[in-house]
Amino acid sequence: MLARTFGAFMRAVLVAFLIATPALLLPGVVADTSQIVMLIAIFAGLLTYIEYFSQYPSIVEFRFAPPFNRLRFVALFFTVFLLTVICRGLTDPTNFTHFVTSLGAILGNAIDFPYSPVRLVVLTLPADASHELVATVRTAAGIAYLVSLIAMFCFVTMVRIFGWPARGGVFNVWVNLPLFDPTAGGDVLHRLKRDASLNIVLGFLLPFFIPAVIKAAADVIDPISMQNPQTLIWTISAWAFLPASMIMRGIAMSRIADMIEEKRRRTYAEANHDALQTA
User: Fold this and answer.
1) Element (H, E) at 130
2) Can you tell me the distance from the alpha carbon of 13 to that of 73, in angstroms, rounded to the nearest whole number?
3) What Rg value do the Cα atoms of the chain yield, rounded?
4) Residues 6+ apart with CB under 8 A from 257
């Protein structure tokens, strides 16, 4: 009980700190914006505490299959933190902000080729956008894309080399996939593989699809203004993190399907062996 309470509290603090990071580190944030961000951070922290304090699953997947959620949180935190450092370097440059900005610029320029995700993000900017804003968006997109690729590589390594989640003990589908109903109809194995493929395909398409939707919506509603540092940080973070998270979820569900299939194969083999012995 005490360990669960402390773990839920620490997770809530970390989630709240993640949301408040841009407002805490960026200079010149107005008081009204800071208050709104703090309210959102407290609300998100409270939801996180309730979710992890409860013994029963609700919405968070893979709660008892670490380090899946920890890896996603670390990836999102580093994305938000590094983009905040880049934006802070525009007004208060330091050696660290210069290093992160230079790294992001190298990555952004390397990935900024025709029809690439970074090029599509840059094309969402208005035609009269300044050169500095274009360079900042390209740099932020490059560093965010790098973090998402590292997160996916780390998760694939855990699955393929370290045998996630089997090495953590017995995997309970109901607890770790609360939004997946095994009794909804059809073979569970087929549905897991279908959902895994769908998540992976959508994860690969979203970096291209999101900028296209933003660009198309700009003709109907007011476009998102990247001039605001916090808007830039959260927009680029969502653009990079959501596809990576979906791909990781697809890989995880595919791994669970493989485990179920292997379990079935061993069960059928043992049943056939017993039937042959009794014949």
Assistant:
1) none
2) 13
3) 22
4) 189, 192, 193, 196
